[in-house]
Amino acid sequence: MNERALRIAAPLWIGILFLLGWEALVEIERLPPYVLPGPVLVAETLWRDGPSLLGSLLVTLRITLAALAAAVILGGALAILFAQSRLLEISLFPYAVILQVTPIVAIAPLIIIWLKDQVFLSLLVCAWIVAFFPVVANTTLGLNSADRNLVDLFRLYGASRWQTLRFLRLPGALPYFLAGTRISGGLALIGAVVAEFVAGTGGTDTGLASRILEAGYRLQMPRLFAALLLLALTGILIFAALSWLTRLLVGHWHESALPSED
Amino acid sequence: MTASIVTLERVGKRFRTGVEALSGIDLAVAPGSFVSLVGPSGCGKSTLLRIIAGLTPASSGRVAAEPGLERQLGFVFQEPTLMPWASVFDNVYLPLRLAGKRRSEVAPRIAETLEAVGLAGFEQAYPHQLSGGMRMRVSIARALVTEPRLLLLDEPFAALDEFTRFKLNEDLLRLWQRHRWTVVFVTHSVFESVFLSSRIVVMTPRPGRILADLPVELPYPRERELRTEPRYAEACRRVSSLLSEAMV
Questions:
Q1: Is A217 an interface residue toward B (CB < 8 Å)?
Q2: What value of ipTM does the predicted structure carry?
Q3: Residue A159, min C-alpha distance to chain B (Å)
Q4: Which domains can be identified in chain B, with CATH numbers?
């Protein structure tokens, strides 16, 4: 079997076995749906409630994508700034770390209070805080990893700071930046959901987190699972899209994306 | 007396770690000559090359180069040091791009240079698609494309197999005979240095000093057959015995 088919078939079989085991467990133990719904019931619920959940998914997705975009733009810009001055990097980097290690659930209420009239913006800021660090850290690493001999060569040919950035540091950092972006994609989704959880906003124009909370309160476990499934699928889709982008942008040269020689 | 293209007087180098890499180096490189710096590892020959290139400052002494020389240098590293994301064409285009030349303006020159190093038709290939020897050829083409007056090579063929190495030696020599740039070539191979150079500088380690400075009295053009001739063996023996002196 070739590599490509194996990549699809192997995880697929694991998934099928897992679902069969899950369904069997629910059937044999006669677990009530409010404790653990079987996968068949979850699928049915997703089919039935899909349209109503989809609206909420779009809300969450908007926050996620906006946060990811902000993480990529601001994170990338910050990393480029760091690459310009060692002093700036060592002065500011610890604060990026602090922002990263502070649990978002602890600061989310503050942000929501400060931006009280702008629900979307407050959720966006929370999701951004969760998502931006991998882009900053990876891109900074990439910008600083330029081949020393190539840096010397640029110096030898009298390259300006801008030329060194444009022709050497940025292209070299691209794979690192994309790896960071792939991590940030998942984190932006998590950040968006966590922020919605903390904000706990009611009403119709809210995200999937609110649907999950509601379903939990009402013991509608099949619906809760359906919403979770939707979130997981969204996460996979974001990851797949960013992986595709990585292959498109650096697939023709970077070691990680080159086919093996044998 | 011909004016030298670059002159070093009492040049010394001490690293921040306190290690003394070079001490009292006097060296004048005549235009059009092919000078090899030969010595065991750690004798500071690469450091000396970097000082000539202006990549590393000397700690003491004086380095005097012809005016404007710093913009007419070519440098080839031990590794091919190519940009993996750029095609062969773009790698060779780099020095000209940095000098503000337009791609269309210099495309014929790049094609010519690639042709000269035997890489015609590989313009669009990426470094990872090439063999080690071909990558080194790209690296040499990049150094040559600016038509430098002084070409500095830091053990460029050390990582290549013998066959490829001999072939590249011959090609480099052929190009040098045609263009007569000045070459300073760092190597730890006696056979390579004798085959290529018009002058050999033997260095000793800790700290790096010049032990001997001798001309190679073999006429150019030198062809592959030279490698099997007694006079070549004799020249190699002389340098080898000096080197064993340097090792003690």
A1: no
A2: 0.89
A3: 6
A4: 1-70+173-181+189-248 (3.40.50.300)
